[in-house]
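Sharing a chain and its predicted structure for anyone who wants a worked example. Both blocks are below, sequence first, tokens second.
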Amino acid sequence: MHFGMKRKLIIVFGVLFFFVGCIALYPLQYRHHLPKTELVIDGVTREYYLFVPSGEASGPSGLIITLQGGGADAGWRFPTQDEWEAIAEKENMIIALPSGHTYGDNEGAWVLNTDATAMQDINFFNEMISDISLRHWVDTSRVYAVGWSLGSMFAYELACHMSESFAAIASVAGTMPVNVKSCDQARNVPIMHVHGVEDEIIAYGNSWEWKAWDSVGAMRDIPSLIAYWSDKYECQSKAETSGEAATHFAYSDCTQDARVEHYRLERGTHDWPETLLGQPTSEVMWSFLNHYTLAGRNEQPISVN
């Protein structure tokens, strides 16, 4: 073979291998390397990943549980996970990242519209919190959930069915069923919901139907979602703060000193927003969550600093 032809083939194959390597490595930037634990729940192997702060031995750690959207594979990085890990390191919080599981012909990897016949995910979360508490020093009065998309929808299942375990929840770009089968709470869980008006997947202003998830049924528009919780908690006061790109609604004077907050992002889509009224979204959410424990509301947020 002519030397020039060999040289060209070497270059072509070199470029080809370079691009194949880039394609193979591309997903790695979106995955993390936190340790994974497996639990068998109702005959199904479930998994969660765990971030543990370096100062956990100095005192009991609270627990933040993130709820992924999409296929709910917690091996993929949660939105702004670096920011959440920085908060956890500073505030001595453990972060659990559980994966969902698609049961039967469900259209999602988290069970929605939970009732006594479909407690798989609730059973998993009870066992996961117990397992983490056995392995680490956990302040079980300070357990919080943060969900995005489908994970946001499941956050409301936790508010309904594990209100004795979760001090507060925050969610982005999700909703809940129009006809809720069961939501008999032991306590009113404070709620923050963030949603974009231009969300192309979970509509802000319209109810919508799953393709064939009859056990869940129609899903609420976002004003209806906020009204559901503020009415359920009998909130007596409403404050509104408007910015250039977002409006913040705060419902207070609710029973059991609960609170419902909503950030309406005027140009927001289904993506996780970087900021809320000029502040990093993760920090705004943490400031909200950190006001609450199972004992009630703290006038001054708990901080290790």
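Comments welcome. The first strand starts at residue 36 and ends at 41.
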